[in-house]
């Protein structure tokens, strides 16, 4: 199969006159990295990979083993619809290897590949559909607050809607490169958009999220505006999340579906949900990776705070949507805490690992929390046995550091580097004296 | 003996039956066998074969994968005869592009001998079908792997291209997901029929709003390519 794919890629590149092929991969923090090769080098790259010095990539090599090998995944070769029509450019995602050919432990794509393949060995395919939120702003001057482009709200159809046009063009570009969109609309906050991708296997979707963030920014930049996946850019309005719909299939059967159950959930779905709930706090430093992420996870803005699940209660961490027409194939979980600044490869790996741990060890699913949890006080929540997500990056790191599950799922290399890097981010934040403090204390203390 | 008949015949199978070996030897053929389990299978040299016999009866999946490999466009096409049992005849459906002739097993030595002679006598370039397949303003160039709609290039991945090629070559027919999976992916693909669904969606996205309905969903059956004649 790989041989035929490579053959196809080479022929396509030459037929379409591709000048540059961008080799894409992702660093540990979730930034898209790229280097370009000419079409002449493509065959060589497909056969033997391209060597590069990984020591300057965040979370990659330690200096003494700095050279790594990027091997293109020919299945992801795609001509990009930007730029000069007469000098087409293409991208291809790469897996990073050590020079001896073994999988490089610092490569997030390889981590997800390992998890997906382990699930596959147990007969399970992992499907994901993410709902991605983001904001458009006029490019801010240094020191200025970001300015929204409109003041629309949820589902608003504003006339001469700039953001609507941007969204439309973004979707057209996404579809052109094979990323089907299910829904899109103006979200709740000024200038905030949501685009929901159709489900696909976990690795494809992680690649799609990386491509998506790039396309959204490209289209925005071409119109002189600024797109951001920062989780909470504006105070007092909703932030941006990446609600993630998860399902597991055994061949053509939805392993989450059980007709006989009152929730239509199979025992596997229940213990998977229980696993996610049980380990949610441990994986939060990955699904919500920045200082700013935790300003979204507060009561009152439709973001989850509590470790609970329910069918149609959007205040919980996990929602089990009621499928249209009771379609068994559509039975799924919606994991609501992640935000779009996360590294999708690592986040999806951990969601799968947490859920499957629940399945393997037969976790019991706690009762559904159908009350609006934001209206209950801590005492009432305690009585229901409902805990909270970490309240800050520091808290999330504290829980992560003690998590065997996360350590094992990410591997020593990424685990150790990530915690060290994020601890430093927290220290930088902690020592910063904010405007809030000046305004509040300077005059009165 | 003509020159094309004097070279070596490639024989691929799970086991090479003594019956097959004897028939080939008795008819004076020079042949070389490779088993499905051999490492060398993935890198069959493409220099000197005059033709190929692939025995599908024990493991059709492996057999088709070899056949597909032999039809890669970057090598000289090799005329191919496949051996199938009577119960496997449906294996041949919608795979016309992968073989030139077939023979039922258990075969009669005289018949196989005659078919091999015929296969080699008609050697020369494999009769390729028209290089460009069209449907309305959608065109697929099978030689260059390029697809276009209204003369605008359609940039597909390999599997998207293979799926579209299969559909365009069989317009108006309804295919189940399982059929598409086995004919386009060649069974060994993991992920089941859902794989077909996600690829159809990606294809529709790339075809764009105007042409997405070229691939129609036939409820609880599968997919059909082409517009309904009643709509036009």
Brief rundown of the structure:
The complex is a heterodimer of chains A (445) and B (232). Chain A is an alpha+beta fold.
Describe the fold and architecture.
Chain A is an alpha+beta fold and 445 residues long. Chain A contains 13 helices and 17 strands. In chain A, the strands form 2 sheets. In chain A, strands 7, 8, 9, 10, 11, 12, 13, 14, 15, 16 and 17 form an 11-stranded mixed β-sheet that branches. In chain A, helix 8 (344-360) packs across helix 11 and helix 10 packs antiparallel against helix 12 (412-430). Chain A starts with a helix and ends with a helix. Chain B has 7 helices and 12 strands. By secondary structure, chain B is an alpha/beta fold. Chain B has helices at residues 3-6, 18-26, 60-70, 109-121, 158-169, 177-185, 194-207; strands at 8-13, 30-35, 49-55, 80-85, 101-105, 132-135, 138-141, 146-149, 152-154, 174-176, 215-218, 222-225. Chain B folds into 2 domains: 3-121, Rossmann fold; 132-225, Winged helix-like DNA-binding domain superfamily/Winged helix DNA-binding domain (Arc Repressor Mutant, subunit A, Orthogonal Bundle), CATH 1.10.10.10. In chain B, 31% of the residues lie in helices and 24% in strands. Chain A binds chain B through residues 1, 3-5, 7-9, 11-12, 15-16, 74-79, 81, 120, 125, 127, 174-181, 198-201, 204, 249, 251-252, and chain B through 42, 68-69, 72-74, 144-146, 153, 155-161, 177, 188, 190-194, 198, 201-202, 204-206, 208.
